[in-house]
Amino acid sequence: MGMTRRSLRIPLALALALLPAALPAVLSAQPVEIREEDRARLDAADAAFGRAMAEALARGAPGDIDRLTEALRGAALPPGEARLDGRWSCRTMKLGGLTPLTVYSPFTCEITRTGPDRWRFAKLTGSQRTEGTIVTRDGRLIYLGTSFNTGSAPVPYDSHPPTTVPAERPDQILPDVARVEAAGPDHIRLMFPRPWLESEFNILDLRR
Q1: Are 87 and 108 in contact (CB under 8 A)?
Q2: Which of 3, 37, 136, 197 could form a cystine bridge with 117, CB 3.0-4.6 A?
Q3: Which of 29, 147, 173 is closest to 94 using CA atoms?
Q4: Is the pLDDT of residue 80 over 50?
Q5: 26 assigned to some structural domain
Q6: Half-sphere exposure in the Cβ direction for 195 (13 Å, CA)
Q7: How much is the pLDDT for 203?
């Protein structure tokens, strides 16, 4: 009853000032749907992995095979037990396709929690990068993102067209999808089935 017009303006001013800061959190909470193309890639993951592994083990260099088998050690934990947040050393492994097995030197990756059962993932170094969101779907952790080269800017995952034609994308900005497997508190694998360029299967092995 005793409030003045001036006192009523103070909460409104604060609300307006805080609104821009609140918008990113609201936007990050929006659901990310899996594109049908990428759902098909996930459905074909086991078959693609089998073909790629057969080629890698048969024709890969011994040292690279050792790193590959080490990356695959450890069963995936349930999503609720995964500890993803933090800065990681991450190594790309490409199986099948142009070469039987290519293992790269370590790069830097980062995972940041952005909400319940939701994280932001980014490969921060190297000429080939990827950035996007890790979400829980059907009891699994799934990465939905965009691959791009250094010097280019990634686009949001859900802005990619329904059909991907790599030859029509000379900038190589392409949709990424992967299964995320936490094999322990200091070991995560991102398993990319049927990537659009170069290989049959990619593994991004994260350590800290």
Answers
A1: yes
A2: 136
A3: 147
A4: yes
A5: no
A6: 30
A7: 98
Do the domain assignments include residue 169?
A: yes
**Pair 76, 182: CB distance under 8 Å:** yes
What number is the average pLDDT over the span 183-192? 97
Which H/E stretch holds residue 5? helix 5-28
Domain that holds residue 80: 33-207
- The count of residues in the chain is 208
Identify the H or E element spanning 53: helix 45-59
Residue 134 lies in a domain: yes
pLDDT of residue 187: 98
- In this structure, what DSSP letter does residue 77 have? P
Taking only the tens place, the pLDDT of each residue in 90-104 is: 999 999 999 999 999
Measured distance CA(29)–CA(177) in Å, rounded: 19
pLDDT tens digits along 29-66:
567 899 999 999 999 999 999 999 999 999 999 999 99
Question: What is the tally of structural domains in the chain?
Answer: 1
Taking the C-alpha atoms of residue 196 and residue 200, their distance in angstroms, rounded to an integer, is 9
Q: Which is it for the CA torsion 72, 178, 202, 88, positive or negative?
A: negative
Task: Report the DSSP beta bridge partners of residue 53.
Answer: none
Q: Is residue 100 part of a domain?
A: yes
The residues, any chain, with a CB within 8 Å of residue 76's CB and separated by 6 or more, are: 181, 182, 183, 189
This prediction's pTM: 0.84
Separation in Å, CA 152 to CA 17, 80, 158: 33, 34, 18
